[in-house]
Amino acid sequence: MSPSLVRCRVDAQGILISADAPLLRLQQLTGADLGDPMALPGLAQLLHSAVASMRRMSRAVMMGDARFLMTGVAQITPHGDGADIVIQDWRSIERVVTEPITLHASLPSPMGWSWETDADLNLLAMRVGASAPPLSVDWDGRPLGEVLHLTADQDGDMPIISAHEDKQIFAGQQASTGKPPKTVHDMILTGNPIFDAKGGLRGFRGIAEPAPHMDINQCPHFQNDGEIYAELRFNKRVDDALRQPLNQIIGKATSIADQFDGPIRADYARYASDIAQAGRHLLGLVDDLADVQNIESPTFHLDAQNIDLLDIAQRAVSLTASQADEKHIAVRFLVPEQGCVGKGEPRRVLQILINLLSNAVRYSSSETEIVVHVERFEDRISLAVSDQGPGISVEHQRVIFDKFERLGRRDSGGSGLGLYIARKLARAMGGDLTVTSRLGHGAYFTLWLSAVNAA
Amino acid sequence: MSPTSVSPPRGNGSPILSARMAELVQYMGTPLLGRLTDEQRSLSLAIARRLVTNVARHIDADMDMAALWGDWTRDGIPVTEEFARACFTRAEEHRWRVATEHSALTVNLNNQQGNQHVAARAGDVWPNHALAAAYQQFQLADRRRFDAYGYPALGITDISDNLFRHLLNEIARWRLEVLSADRKSSAGLGDAVRYAWQQKTAEKGIDAAAQDFFHQLLNANLLYDYVNEAILRHEWPSFLALASVAQAQRYADMSLFFMTATPDQWAKILNPLRVSDAAKLTLEEAIMLLPARASASDGWM
C-alpha cells in the first residue's frame, strides 16, 4: 500500500540530500540518486520557482514510471539551507499501456490503401497507394460500409463488425469497391482500434490490400480478353513478387537516407542512399523484364493512333531535362514548320524517346550538346536523338539492339534491355529504330514512324 | 631568442568553409537550452518540405518537386520567420501528440474536485446532428494535416495568407528560371499562381473547422464539459482548437503557446474555459512528457 505522506529535502544548490523510499525510487529511475540535483521534472520546476521567490508553494504534481503514475499535492518550504518538500495524499495508479500504433502498421504497399475511421466507422482518412485500385473521391466522413461493399466470410461473419463491438484488432475483412457490371476490386481490410487516454474507442486505423484471389479474371470485363488478362496477370505476379518488396526497400531506404525520422550518422545515411539507388536500378530492371515478357508474347500488338509527335518529343525532352542539367548538357530541339502527326501509341513513343534521351545523357560528357531533330518526309516522320558522346563502333552497332547487350559495360547504368524494347515497340507500331555512329563522333538514333497526312 | 608568433592557416577562402564556420560560431555561441534538438530540426525540415511540395502541387501537379527541393536546399530555402515558426509549431505539436498517444492512462479522478461533468465526445451520442457534423469536419481537417504516410504536414489552409503568398511567389520564381526556355509554359505560370490563390480562399482548414465546432458546442451547452473531457482523454487537437477559438487566436498560435508556456501562464486560457483541477493536472503531466520543450520564462499574449 502506498504511504500517504512522502518527504524529501534539497540543499541550497538543489541537491537531493534525503528522501523517502518511494520518491528516491523515482529519482533513481531517472538515472539520478541522492547527492544529485532533483531530477523529477514537475517537482524540479516547482522547486525552482519556490526557491527563486523564497515563497512557500503548493501544487498538485504527477510523476511516474512505465508502470505506475504517482499523484499528490507537493508543498515546498524554502529556507536558508535549501528546501523541504512534503507530498501529501501520495497515491499510485497503475498505468494501462496500449499497444503503440506503429507507422509500419499504417503503411500499405503501393497496391493498397491506408485508412482511418472515427468511433462510428466513418472515414476520416484514406490514402491510396501509387498502384492501388482507385476509390471514389467523396469518401470524406462517409461510413466505411457505404464507401466499400463489405462482405461476410464463409461463416457469415463480418470481422470488422465484431471488432467494433469488442474494440479489438481485426483481419480478413473482405470488401470490394463496387458491384458488377462496374469494375470490381476485391480488397482485404485489417485494422487496429485506437483508444484515448480514458480507454474510450477513438476509431480504427488500418490498411487494405488487394485480395490474393484477385486474379483479374474475377473482374467480369477481363474475362473475354485473353491478351489483356495474360498481361495483367503477369504484371500482378511481378508486382506481388518483385515490385512491392522493391518499392518498400526503396521507400524505407530513402526515408532513412533523408533522415525524416531523426538524425543518423552521415555514413549510414550514405549507405541507405546507396541501397535506395540499387533498389531503383533493380526496379527499372523489373519494369524492363515485364515489358520484354509482354512484347515477346505472340499476341502482342499496339493500337497505333494519330498523335502529335512534336508534343510527345517536347514532353520527353522536358522529362529528361533535369538529368541533362545535372551534367550541364544542352538539349537543342529542331522541329519542322509544319505539324508532325504520325501513327503510334503515345505512351510507347514517349517511352522510346525517353530511353534514347537518357542514354544520350548517360554516355555524353559534360558541357556537350544533344540535338532532338524531328523531320517530316513524304510518308514517314523521323525523330532523331544525336549526341556528342564517344560513338559506337560498327561491330557494336550490329548487336546494340540485342537483348541484354551492354556493349561490354559492367557499371550499374542500365539493364541492356532498353534499346531492345525500344526497337520492338517501334516495329510493333509499324515503324523502326535505327542507329548510325562513328567512333569519337557521337551517335545518331532515329525513331521512324508513319506520317499522317493533314485532312 | 624571442618566441615567434605564427598565425594559424585561415583556410583557402572557400565560401562553403566560411558559411560552415559562421554556422558553427552561431551554434557554439547559443546557450544549450536555446538549441534545437536534432529531432526538432529534422522534423521541422521535413514539414517544410511537405508544405513546399503541397504548395507547388497547387501551381502545377506535374512540377518536379524533387528538383525544387533539391535546388532550395542546395542554395538555401527562402525561409521567413513565419515559415520557420509554422514548421516548428507543427513539429512540436506532433512530438507532443506522439509522446502522449502511446501511453494511455486510466486515471480515476471522479472523486476529485470539479469533475462532475457528463462525458460528451464522439463515440457517445451527440445531442444533435449539427454538432456531430461539426466534430466530424474538425476531425477531417485535423487528418488533412498529415501526408500520405501519416507524417505531420501543413496544408495550405493551415497557413496564413501571407506565408502562402510568399511560398507561391518563391516557387513561381524558381519555376520561371527552370522554364526560361519555354515561353508558352512561362506565360501560363501567372495563371497557375492566381488559380492556386483562389483555391486557398475557397477551402476550409483547421481554424474554420474549429470555429464551427466551438459554436456548436456552445449552442448545445456542452463547451466546458467537452473541454475537460478532451484534456482527460488526451484529445489535444480538440482542446487546442477550442482554446484557440475562445481566445480568438489561430490554432497554430495556441498550439505554440501550450508547447512553450509554463503552467503558471495557462490560467488565463484555462480559467475562462472552466477547466477543472483534475484536467489541469492531466494537462500538466502530459506536457511534461514532451522532451526538450522550449518553455517560456516570461509572459505571452
Description:
The complex is a heterodimer of chains A (455) and B (301). With 455 residues, chain A is of the alpha+beta class. Chain A is built from 10 helices and 18 strands. In chain A, strand 10 (186-195) and strand 11 form a beta hairpin. The relative contact order of chain A is 0.06. Chain B is built from 13 helices and no strands. Chain B has helices at residues 15-29, 38-59, 65-75, 81-101, 129-143, 161-178, 183-202, 206-219, 223-232, 236-246, 251-260, 263-270, 277-288. Chain B is flat, with a radius of gyration of 24 Å. In chain B, helix 8 (206-219) packs across helix 10. Chain B has 2 domains: 36-87 and 151-202; 104-149 and 205-288, no CATH class. By secondary structure, chain B is mainly α. Classes of the chains: A alpha+beta (455), B mainly alpha (301). Chains A and B meet through helix 2, strand 3, strand 6 and strand 7 of A and helix 2, helix 5 and helix 13 of B.
**Tally of individual domains of chain A:** 4
- State the helical fraction of chain A: 25-40%
Note the beta-strand portion of chain A: 25-35%
Largest sheet of chain A: 6 strands, antiparallel
Radius of gyration of chain B: 24 Å
List unreliable stretches of 5+ residues of chain A. 95-106, 214-229
Give the SSE order of chain B as H and E letters. HHHHHHHHHHHHH
Span of the ends, CA to CA of chain A: 96 Å
The tally of strands of chain B reads 0
Give the domain tally of chain B: 2
Put the structure in a nutshell:
The complex is a heterodimer of chains A (455) and B (301). Chain A is α+β, with helices and mostly antiparallel strands and 455 residues long.
Give the SSE layout.
The complex is a heterodimer of chains A (455) and B (301).
Chain A: E1 5-11, E2 16-19, H1 21-29, H2 41-53, E3 57-64, E4 68-79, E5 82-94, E6 113-118, E7 123-128, H3 144-147, E8 149-151, H4 159-166, E9 170-176, E10 186-195, E11 201-210, H5 226-258, H6 266-295, E12 305-308, H7 309-326, E13 330-334, E14 341-344, H8 346-363, E15 369-376, E16 380-386, H9 394-399, H10 418-428, E17 432-437, E18 443-450
Parallel strand pairs in A: 13-15
Antiparallel strand pairs in A: 1-2, 1-5, 3-4, 4-5, 6-7, 6-11, 8-9, 9-10, 10-11, 12-14, 15-16, 16-18, 17-18
Helix pairs in contact in A: 5-6, 6-10, 7-8, 8-10
Chain B: H1 15-29, H2 38-59, H3 65-75, H4 81-101, H5 129-143, H6 161-178, H7 183-202, H8 206-219, H9 223-232, H10 236-246, H11 251-260, H12 263-270, H13 277-288
Helix pairs in contact in B: 2-4, 2-6, 4-11, 5-8, 6-7, 8-10, 9-10, 9-13, 10-11
